[in-house]
Amino acid sequence: MLRLHANEHPQGPPAGVAESLHALVPELHRYPSREGALQAAIAELHDVPLNRVLVGAGSAEIISLAWRVFTGPGRAAFFHEPEFEFYPMLSAQCGTAALTRAWPPEEHLAEYLRQERVGLMALSNPHNPTGAWQPRQAIADLAGRLPDTTVVLNDEAYYDYVDVPDAGPSLKALSELPNVLTTRTFSKIYGLAGLRVGYGVGNARLIGLLRSLQTPFSVSSTACSAALAALADQTLVLDRRARNREQREAMAAALTERGFEAEPSQANFLYVRPPRGTADWVADLLDRGVRVYPVGSALRVTVGSAAETAVLIAAVDDVLTSIQTKSMEEI
Q1: What is the pLDDT of residues 257-307, one digit of tens each?
Q2: Is 205 helix (H, G, I), strand (E, B) or coil?
Q3: At 329, is the pLDDT very low, low, confident or very high (cuts 50, 70, 90)?
Q4: Checking CA distances to 85, which of 58, 98, 288, 297 falls within 20 to 30 Å?
């Protein structure tokens, strides 16, 4: 089965990860103790104080903590539709009212959020599932028009894939704002999805509130060691970003030639609308060994390797041939 539904990186973890995990084996009877080292490495990477960083079991843990801390009775959560499926799930789990508007963000969004007394405004950036990118200055401007009690969750799970210049605030500058929390993950470009490790960066007050609810030892020694090894080679990020752009453009061109409408993307996936017809594209591709993610009548398709793209396009061609054959038989 070709997995093009979960936005995993087609390559495995960096070369140094296996060595770091092997060296850790003699210590696996001990409780995790490497979180501090990873926190320090992240703080150094982004040039922020230690108290502005929180390491978690994937960025999902940090986002979950944010829902628990910043939403509740009288403090709704807000996100755009189509949405990252995790956001409505958290709202349901926390019993939080979920307010939504259609993507992209509109001009008077801040006024609406103030009026509705929103506690947490979640913005995946690049946006999941469309792949659209909002410059960081837009994030800072939005936060500046909101009260400190409305926290902007700047979910940058796919930030490492962005290849357009952004002259806006650095992550350090965003962390100096009183109501912006940025999350990152090692699950995507670093290829560590199976180990569950990510982090949040924000001002010390926000991070302290999240830390107060975090379960001790939530991040394993193996996850911390692997993340430290991955951070040691930043040239890998540049290489993988370039390869992703190349394959994203190739996939978009191939699907467009076949009647799909592909939205511009700055992530490692495409949001595409299939050609009109009777095909159930999710089921039909699954029958041919390719799994994609449904978003209403559209599809979110992970950018894979060149070989994986070839398998996808072959499956698409087979579905289109099947549709054409069926149409001919009905004439």
Answers
A1: 999 999 999 999 999 999 976 679 999 999 999 999 999 999 999 999 999
A2: helix
A3: low
A4: 288
Q: Are the beta carbons of 135 and 156 closer than 8 angstroms?
A: no
Q: Residue 124 — φ and ψ, nearest 5°? A: -75, 130
Q: Which residues contact 18 (CB under 8 A, 6 or more apart)?
A: none
Please answer whether residues 215 and 55 qualify as being in contact, where contact means their C-beta atoms are separated by less than 8 angstroms: no
Q: Does this model's pTM top 0.90?
A: yes
Give me the count of residues in the chain.
331
Q: Mean pLDDT throughout 216-239?
A: 95
- Which residue intervals of 151-267 are DSSP H helices? 171-175, 204-211, 221-231, 235-257
> What are the start-end ranges of the E strands in the chain?
2-4, 53-56, 76-81, 98-102, 118-124, 151-155, 180-185, 198-202, 261-262, 269-273, 290-295, 298-302
Question: Which of 225, 161, 236, 227 lies closest to 192 in space, CA to CA?
Answer: 227
Secondary element (H or E) of residue 89: helix 86-94
Residue 169 in contact with residue 140, Cβ under 8 Å?
Answer: yes
Contacts of 43 (CB under 8 A, 6+ apart): 49, 50, 52, 53
Domains annotated on the chain, with CATH: 2-7+236-330 (3.90.1150.10), 15-231 (3.40.640.10)
What phi and psi, each to the nearest 5 degrees, are found at residue 274?
-65, 160
- Cα–Cα dist 112/30, whole Å: 50
- Residue 90: the pLDDT is 97
Question: With the C-alpha atoms ordered 176, 182, 267, 128, is the resulting torsion angle positive or negative?
Answer: negative
